[in-house]
Amino acid sequence: xxxxxxxxxxxxxxxxxxxxxxxxxxxxxxxxxxxxxxxxxxxxxxxxxxxxxxxxxxxxxxxxxxxxxxxxxxxxxxxxxxxxxxxxxxxxxxxxxxxxxxxxxxxxxxxxxxxxxxxxxxxxxxxxxxxxxxxxxxxxxxxxxxxxxxxxxxxxxxxxxxxxxxxxxxxxxxxxxxxxxxxxxxxxxxxxxxxxxxxxxxxxxxxxxxxxxxxxxxxxxxx
Length: 223
Fold this sequence. Notes:
The chain is an all-alpha fold. Helix content is 82%, strand content 0%. About 3% of the residues have low confidence.
C-alpha cells in the first residue's frame, strides 16, 4: 500500500515538473520557426529559398530581426573592433605605421556603415512600418515626411556594404601578407572576418528576402 502511494506521488510530481517545463518553454509562431530555418539556410551560404518558406515568414519578423542586428552592430560589434584599433594605437611603434594606416581603411568604412544604418533606422524602417500600417488599417502614408520615396527606388540604388567591407579586408590582407603582425592586429583581422560574415547574412535577409517582398507589396498597395 505504501509502495503504491509512493509511486502515485512520484508519478504526480513527474507530471507536474514536465508541465512546468513545457509551460516555461518559449512558444514560437510559424513565422518565427520559418525565420530560423531561413537564417540557417542563409548562414550555410544559400541565397535562393523556397517560396513556400518565404511566405511563412512575416515581414514584421524580418524587420525586427534586421533592427536587432543594427543594435548589435552599433552597440557591440563596432565598439569591440574600435577597442582593438585602440589597442594597436596604444602600442604603436614606428614599424606599426602601415598597420595603423590599414586600420584607417576600416575607420573610413565604419563611418559609411553607421550612416547607412542611421538612414535605415530613421527613414527606411519607419517608411516600411507606415506601409505595413497602410496595408493593415488603410492609414495613409505621411508624404510630408517621406515625400515621393519608394522602395523600388531605394532597392535599385541600394549599396552592398558587405562587399565594401570585403574590399577593405582584401586590401589589408594584400598589405600584410609578408609582414609579421602583432597579436592585437590578428585579433582585429579575425573580428573583421566575423563581422563580414554577419553583414553577409544581414544583406541576404534585406536584399534578397525583405526588400523584394516589400517592393511587390508597395506596388500592390500604391500602384
